[in-house]
Amino acid sequence: MKSRLKIWLEILLVSSKLGLTSFGGPVAHLGYFREEYVKKKKWLDDQSYADIVALCQFLPGPASSQVGLSIGLLRGGLVGSFLSWFGFTMPSILILIVFAYLFKGTDVHEAGWLMGLKITAVAVVAQAVMGMGKSLAPDRPRITIAVLAAVGALFVPSAWGQLAIIAGSAVAGYLLYKREEVPEVPKLILTIGKKTASASLLLFGLLLVLLPIIRQTFSGTYIALFDVFYRVGSLVFGGGHVVLPMLEKEVVPAGWMTQDVFLAGYGAAQAVPGPLFTFAGYVGAIISGVPGALIATAAMFLPSFLLVIGVLPFWSSIRGKKGVQAALMGVNAAVVGILLAALYDPVFTSAIHSASAFALALVSFALLVYWKLPPWLVVGLTIIAGTLMEQIGVL
């Protein structure tokens, strides 16, 4: 039990560090995760990590949070999964609750420190593309798949387009590599079985069907909040930037808040570390204080827990089959391509508007890749540099 407690404490500490330093959105988070969990901690190898990323791209909800949940589940069981989520999301939830009380209507979009965070994301994602490309797209066919996936993601920038790219790359990988010998994949060690997984998937479906009925039967703000956020967390594909317009249609017309207050929170959510889905904490706090923030956050992320617990055991049992491995070789190359497209849009296009911004991104990249400075230190230095450059008018 002592060793188990030690593992849980380590999961909490590592995920909390990521929750405090992982700026830049879901694509950047995958870069931070790979650096911490694969390269530094060696909790899993690059191929297993890419397989989990590929799976989470297919699931609705916040992909980066689901990757963190999956790694926590592998490392420390159900408790480890919760601790991984708690550490990664709680810092931004607390910050956004404070924003909800103190920064209504504040415009943070062009602050120098925020621009510094966005520039850091450019360096982090570029590092991830370079590292994952070497291991997941090492030959000409997979480089071709990655490039075609990047082109497709740029021209069809939607969640459904991304799913089509991944599916097409799976077919391409199967056709190209089905006759080749594939190395034996490292086994994903899980403490939950398929019965637990089936029960989790059943609960996911039941809540999705029953919550709207319960909301109609029993009126109340908390029930309505839980229904809205659970439904959005269950049905949204494409990450945090997709969830925001869906939420706006739910909360602004209902009179829970004005559009100005909603958009102010959107700016704040982009300025904090961790997943953009923690925007639920801001919205819940505006509607009903701290209890509203906790209910909205729990409802938003509950589908991710249920889906990861429900799908990962089945995924673990089939991913080692030769045909599945061949398909995954194509999918993993496509993940590199999608990451490459995201490096341009939205990461590069939202951060680099001048030669000085590009210069700062280059310095950040060099500090990460060649000087091997820890990401949290590069984040801090880039925030300081961005603030100073904004003050003197060169950013």
From TrEMBL:
Membrane found in the keyword field: yes
Membrane topology label: Multi-pass membrane protein
Record's keyword terms, sorted: Cell membrane, Membrane, Transmembrane, Transmembrane helix
Cell compartments where the protein resides: Cell membrane
Superkingdom field: Bacteria
InterPro entries: Chr_Tranpt_l_chain, Chromate_transpt
TM spans (from-to): 7-33, 82-103, 115-133, 145-177, 197-214, 220-244, 265-287, 293-314, 326-344, 350-369, 376-394
Classification via PANTHER family: CHROMATE ION TRANSPORTER (EUROFUNG)
Similarity section: Belongs to the chromate ion transporter (CHR) (TC 2.A.51) family.
UniProt name for this protein: Chromate efflux transporter
Organism in which the protein naturally occurs: Metabacillus sediminis
